[in-house]
Amino acid sequence: MELTSLSLSEVREELRAKNVSPLEVLQALEERIARVDPAIRGYVARDFESAAAQAKNADVSLPLGGIPIAIKDVINVLGEPCACASKILRGYRSPYDATVVKKLRAAGAIPYGRTNMDEFAMGSSTENSSISPTYNPWDTSRIPGGSSGGSAAVVAADEAFAALGSDTGGSIRQPAALCGCAGLKPSYGRVSRFGLVAFASSLDQIGPFTKTVRDSALMLNAISGLDTQDSTSLDEPVPDYAATLGQDIKGLRLGMPKEYFVGGIDPRVDETVRAAIRHYESLGAEIVEVSLPHTGHAVGVYYIIATAEASANLARFDGVRYGHRAAGAANLLEQYGKTREEGFGAEVKRRIILGTYVLSSGYYDAYYLRAQKVRTLIRRDFTTAFDKVDAIVCPTSPEPAFKIGERSDDPLRMYLADIFTIAANLAGICGISIPCGFAQADGKALPIGLQLLGKPFDEARLLKLAHAYEQSTPWHKQKPVL
Amino acid sequence: MRYLPTVGLEVHVQLKTRSKMFCACPVEFGAEPNAHTCPVCLGLPGALPVMNLEALRMTALSGLLLGCDIAPVCKFDRKNYFYPDMPKNYQISQYDMPLCAGGGVPLHDMAYPKDAQKNITHPDKVVRLVRIHLEEDVAKSFHFETSTGIDFNRAGTPLMEIVSEPEIDSPEEAFAYLTALKQILIHGGVSDADMEKGQLRCDCNVSVRPEGQKEFGAKIEIKNMNSISGVRRALAYEIARQIDACERGEALRQETRRWDDASGQTWLMRTKEYAHDYRYFPDPDLLPVKTDVLVGAVRGRLPELPAARRARYVADYGVSPYDAGVLANDIGLSSYFEAASKDSAKPKSVANWVLNDLLSALGASSGAIEACPVSPESLGKLVAVIERGEISGKQGKEVFAEMFATGKPPQTIIAEKGMKQESDTGAIEALCDQVIEANPKVVADYRAGKVSSINFLKGQVMKLSQGKANPGMVGEVLARKLADL
To answer: Are A113 and A119 a contacting pair, CB within 8 Å?
Structure first.
């Protein structure tokens, strides 16, 4: 068996047993990347020399000692590029480590490689990267999902043992579903955002992509906790998320939101997810129908709040202090205009314009303020549902991976790819996507994701539920042929 | 026709916190450009702000000192606009929920310019405030011949914006408002409020209207004044310019003008045709903070303000209102006086020494009170020694001059000069006996009824003691001995 096909937990055991050295692990990974990434294009940058130097000094007794972790191009790693897959930040190098990166280093891990994404995390297909699309390892004519498509693809293709991504409206869970790996979006405030280039500050959250649920728990152990540099991180205790894995789930109540099973879902997804829910029943969980009555407004609310925040968050990219600066501007205003016109891609511009509009004088109350009120209603939907159930179970994405270019001219249809994931960000709850089966298309197997949603800071129970399913099904063991 | 000017002031005050508003960089004036910067105050991708609670406390304190209502929740908003001195291209500020609302600045006579103190139209006027809010300062641009440099040391400094109601009626009132406000802020310890260092900056909104007209005229904003007297001059110029324009039938429009101190004129900067839409919205990086605990902590440390001090000096010490004003208005002088008179039985004497001897010595040496060679404790001791009659007032002046020149404490100088008055009754009695015996004729005159003769005897005793005998005691002892003869 190839070293790179091991899970994070497995490679950790190999390292601890000294069967293999951190440098050998890194070298094996680099060989794998060199072989398969030209077809996947999950990475946008790697610094082997720097990682090798860290591998030589790695302490394998630490929780993630000596294990390389891929980092989405939106999270700052000292000295490395951090372009958010945008032309406007091409050449920019981070002068500091994000808090999650500091925490990974403290746990012994080696940040290795920058993964591709939709520009500034805006998109659901990773086609909005200014560098290249990323291709789905299961069918390279298809998208890997997005915006963290690079992170999902490299984990699925055994080019990484784990990767960090960010999830603003589904950007971890949806690509995890489409690439067939585990993707966890922690509760808002669980993981520090310091060093994550902000898309929508009230929705963004960093989380891991892994090959197994146990690995997600290990990653969450490493990156969680209060950070005094992020006022929105919360001082909630951090349990050992791996400790409760394997415990019985009998008697736990799982809610099926009736609004999520009403058609519009690809029948293969619908069927597979229903089968997964029946499987939970066979494991002893109780299935309960719940209602999330404001579901229909989630996408609309999301695209007002997220774009409004983004319009301000992305204002700093102006060519004055760093990044791309347009040549030949006659004055300051022209320099701003040309720099941003040249530096941002179409989707980013579309969202900045939308966000600027909804905040404009005279429209604020009708759009932004109202959206915030509806957001409160959506959050209450979940609070009410969680009074009845321990977690919610539903599809991650309404369909398997689509073809590259298929939706490029239809942003609205693209936005609907996140219909099941967006509400969790609006409500600040946690969610995970795990593989639950495959759809066959053009002779290829396309992964389907099962989404579990949990109460804020209830990641331990969510992981326990996900782990119980995973360990009693074969899906996570299947690998794309590359 | 007579025209009435109306002025409202927007004052920006840098708080003297140790660190910046949203990061740990130090607040320091005059450092190497960009020495005090970090990813947060440079607005680098991924950096996040964290509130400086001391800045919130200082703003709440300012609000309490100015009689404002303090909001129960402190919330920050993003003010969106593009400018190179604003690294995020939005400023973290407060929009619809300022930390403080209402309140006012009481004007007092001595806050007016000296030449206007005789013609105060509304004595004891209180200029009401609209609000005080907290925000982050922007960076500083330096324009060179072909380029512009930006120094981000100032970026992120906590900045209070204090907005007055448009109810200031003259340049002199504006002067008094700024002076009184500055005194309160300095006494509160929230800012050094030095306009030359940009720690206090003022924008004026000024309009004129014909007497009898209710509606205000077009609001014209003036910027770039760097002293309080500059504000007075700028307003005087601008009011005259506007009245002149009205009289010529010219329509004034809303615009922003720039004061040029050298030429003494205001110049058009921009009209309001391109009014900004700042697209304020709550900053999602900063959660709202309840202020009750902060305000409670601040209430426990409210300093005494100049107005209360002035009243106390007059009522308790019998100092004249003018002297009380001189002592109380300047924080340095006031602190000095407080320290010097701390254990004094006669604070009024201390006040006289401070106002006369100390101020004239400082004036002659162009020294600042903060760098005064005579410590307040030393001055207090000197006054006490004189009050107790241990040295004479005349000797006191000599000692003070020496203290000012050398910084030595009074006891040392008195001992060195051998000035200490002889208050040992035995020694004085012996001297008196000696003088009485040596001057039988004068003693006889005294006993015959020429009471003033005792002064000669007194003089003789003082002479014998080389001036060291306590004159009061000498008088007493002589009188007793002469009566007993």
So the answer is: no
Instruction: Determine phi and psi for A56, rounding to 5 degrees.
Output: -65, -30
If asked whether residues B468 and B402 sit together in one domain, one would say no
Residue from the list B89, B90, B285 with its beta carbon closest to the beta carbon of A232: B285
Distance, in Å, from the CA atom of A403 to the CA atom of A406, rounded to the nearest integer, reads 5
Q: Residue A469 corresponds to which tokens in the numbers above? A: 């399913």
Domain encompassing residue B118? 3-298
CB contact under 8 A, B80 and A336: no
The answer to whether residue A162 sits within a structural domain is yes
> How far is residue A189's CA from residue A191's CA, in Å, rounded to a whole number?
6
DSSP A288: E
Quick one: which of A342, A351, A408 has its CA closest to A90?
A342
B197 and B259: one domain?
Answer: yes
**Prediction ipTM score:** 0.96
**Cβ–Cβ of B46/A232 closer than 8 Å?**
no
Report the Cα B319 to chain-centroid distance in Å. Answer: 19
Count of structural domains, chain B: 3
Quote the tokens at residue A467.
């782990």
In this structure, what token pair is assigned to residue A18? 């000294």
Strand partners, A451: A394, A433
The reply to whether A80 and A27 lie within a common domain is yes
Q: Are residues A50 and A161 in the same domain?
A: yes
Which chain A residue lies closest to B43 (C-alpha atoms)? A316
Is residue A472 located within the same domain as residue A333?
A: no
Q: Which residues of A touch B39 (CB under 8 A)?
A: 95-96
Are A304 and A444 found together in one domain? Answer: no
Tally: H helices and E strands in chain A: 15, 11
Number of domains in chain A: 2
Please indicate, yes or no, if residue A199 is contained in any of the structural domains. Answer: yes
The answer to whether residues A300 and A445 belong to one domain is no
- Tokens describing residue A139: 């069918």
Interface test with B, best of A90, A120, A194, A364 (most B CBs within 10 A): A194
Residues B275, B132 share a domain: yes
Residue A416 and residue A305 share a domain = no
- Answer whether residue A362 is part of any domain: yes
- The alpha-carbon gap from B94 to the nearest alpha carbon of chain A, in Å, equals 16
Structure tokens at B287: 């959660």
Could you read off the pLDDT tens digit of each residue along chain B, which spans 485 residues?
899 999 999 999 999 999 999 999 999 988 999 999 999 999 999 999 999 999 999 999 999 999 999 999 999 999 999 999 999 999 999 999 999 999 999 999 999 999 999 999 999 999 999 999 999 999 999 999 988 999 999 999 999 999 999 999 999 999 999 999 999 999 999 999 999 999 999 999 999 999 999 999 999 999 999 999 999 999 999 999 999 999 999 999 999 999 999 999 999 998 876 668 999 999 999 999 999 999 998 998 899 988 999 999 999 888 998 999 999 988 889 999 999 998 888 889 999 999 999 998 888 888 888 888 999 999 999 998 888 877 878 888 889 999 999 989 998 888 888 776 666 777 888 888 888 988 888 888 888 888 888 889 888 888 888 777 777 788 888 888 888 87
Q: Where in the sequence is the domain holding A369, given as residue range(s)?
A: 295-374
Chain A residues touching chain B at CB-CB below 8 Å: 75-76, 82, 84, 89, 92, 94-96, 98, 193-198, 200-202, 228-232, 308-309, 311-312, 315-318, 320-322, 332, 336, 356, 359-361, 364, 368
Instruction: Burial-class residue A13 by CB neighbours within 10 Å (0-12, 13-18, 19+).
Output: exposed
Check whether residue B231 and residue B211 sit in a common domain.
Answer: yes
Q: Which of A374, A407, A437 is the last residue of a domain?
A: A374
Residues B253 and B366 placed together within one structural domain of the fold: no
For the annotated catalytic residues of A, the residue numbers are: 72, 147, 171
Does some domain include residue A459? yes
Q: Are residues A153 and A197 in the same domain?
A: yes
Q: Which of A88, A316, A365 to mutate to test the interface with B (most CBs of B within 10 A)?
A: A316
